[in-house]
Design brief:
Helix content is 31%, strand content 23%. It has 467 residues and is an alpha/beta fold. The N and C termini lie far apart (43 Å).
């Protein structure tokens, strides 16, 4: 039995086109598009008809950077794969790529298997995995080849967090050389963690323990220095590089310079760096702890350079780095010592709406919204055109989006499993109305109609975004 759905009368927006078109979905995939009101569109027949008049019809968001159930700092991220993917769907995201973690002394396979076990049967939307490489050795390098063949085609390394995830320059170079051979993409957390640890120790010795000092010790120059070093190591290895959660204008400048040299270097930023600042970290009564993440929030003047980078394509992707910890009982672990505050913010439900607000405010175009939130992450991580667009043959991951509905972001109404919102009280224009994942309604006119286990693991090809 084939199942067919027609979405009628909406403005279909992809990274390349805007067209008033009807969309025919058959057996979970886009079968055809035809201009609304034409004989071709009138000929579409289906059991289910969705009226999108006055609405946008957009590809489901692809969030290339999430951390569900991630252990960190003696606790674990508050969203499970079930709660986190449900919240993602509410926010118009239909695919996440989460991070499986290799423990020091363990194998990549053990880490990947553990994350498969967490996710399988629990996700409301489709998911893939990157692999955090914490322990580079000969066996790890061989395993990288095997993971690429299995559709886990990107590997994250950390220049931060000595003693936990940290890789030194030699380990980074070896992994990059391997990626140059097997087609993998190295993702880099670019901060000079060795230097930062010195500054943390000195700040605490001076009695500077409040959350705002988290931002002051993780200096923008140390993000820029690490970004520069990662770029040059990738150049030596002949490998592409993707720098995650870029927050500082000095780091954007390093990426722009490398791209002007013709290097395959890419950058991601996150909504928190575009919409929040050190003003939030400085909120009194330990409220600033809610905004502790790494890289940290920067002074407000950095925001203009991040938006500029998104417009000039020196930054290509906006992901969330969704890693939520509740204020009560988790963020509070760092009372009296900012270095013990778990690093991470909730955001998987807010990204598409915040970026639409940027469209409303004239910062980016509608097509650029779709490009940085859907199409480019799909291409960057080897899922395009299955994900990230609305075209014949693509998965029917489609969002009916009301561009005029207004909402107020709040922990009272969000669906993430965390007791605060980083955007509490923020008014935005635009809201998800209906979400299809592979043609199946997950959100139907603001009602959750999905279920755990609908989402499946999505193997990925290698990066499709190289020069």
């Amino acid at each position: 039995m084939s199942s067919r759905t027609v979405i009628r009368g909406g403005l279909v927006i992809t990274a390349s086109d805007e067209i008033h078109a009807d969309v025919l979905i058959e057996d979970g995939r886009v079968a055809a598009l035809a201009a609304s009101g034409t004989p071709a569109a009138e000929a579409f027949t289906a059991e289910r008809v969705v009226d999108a008049t006055g609405k946008y019809v957009i590809p489901g968001g692809v969030d290339g950077h999430t951390h569900m159930e991630m252990p960190f700092g003696g606790t674990t991220a508050a969203d499970t794969f079930e709660t986190g993917t449900r919240a993602a769907a509410w926010g118009g995201t239909t695919t996440i790529v989460d991070f499986a973690i290799q423990s020091v002394g363990g194998t990549l396979r053990e880490g990947l298997d553990a994350w498969h076990a967490k996710a399988e049967g629990n996700c409301a939307i489709d998911y893939g995995f990157h692999m955090i490489v914490s322990d580079v050795n000969e066996e790890t390098l061989k395993e990288m080849d095997l993971l690429v063949e299995e559709g886990v085609t990107s590997f994250k390394q950390f220049m931060a967090y000595p003693g936990v995830f940290y890789s030194d320059d030699g380990q980074i170079l070896r992994a990059m050389q391997r990626a140059a051979e097997n087609g993998g993409l190295i993702m880099m957390h670019a901060e000079n963690g060795i230097a930062i640890d010195v500054l943390v120790e000195q700040a605490l010795a001076r009695g500077e323990t409040d959350p705002r000092y988290h931002g002051e010790v993780r200096k923008a120059l140390l993000e820029a220095e690490a970004t520069h070093r990662a770029i040059r190591l990738a150049q030596v290895a002949g490998a592409p590089l993707y720098v995650v959660h870029v927050s500082a204008m000095e780091a954007v400048a390093e990426l722009a310079r490398a791209r002007d040299e013709g290097l395959n270097v890419f950058g991601e930023t996150c909504p928190q760096y575009l919409f929040l600042s050190t003003d939030n970290l400085a909120e009194p009564d330990f409220e600033g702890a809610k905004y502790v993440c790494s890289t940290p929030l920067r002074p407000r003047e950095h925001q203009a350079k991040l938006w500029q980078g998104l417009r000039t394509n020196d930054l290509q992707v906006v992901s969330t780095d969704h890693c939520p910890f509740c204020f009560v009982g988790q963020k509070e672990l760092g009372r009296g010592d900012f270095s013990k505050i778990p690093n991470g913010l909730p955001g998987v439900e807010n990204r598409m709406d915040l970026l639409h607000q940027a469209v409303v405010d004239g910062r980016i175009s509608r097509r650029r919204w779709i490009e940085i939130a859907c199409a480019t992450p799909a291409r960057m991580f080897g899922m395009y055109p299955k994900k990230g667009t609305i075209a014949p043959g693509a998965d029917a991951d489609i969002v009916i989006y009301d561009p005029h509905a207004e909402q107020v972001m709040s922990a009272e109404t969000h669906h993430m499993n965390v007791d605060y919102s980083a955007y509490e009280g923020r008014r935005t224009t635009g809201r998800v109305e209906t979400v299809l994942s592979r043609g199946v309604p997950v959100i139907t006119e603001r009602e959750y109609t999905g279920h755990a286990g609908h989402g499946v693991f999505t193997p990925r090809s290698t990066c499709q975004y190289l020069n």
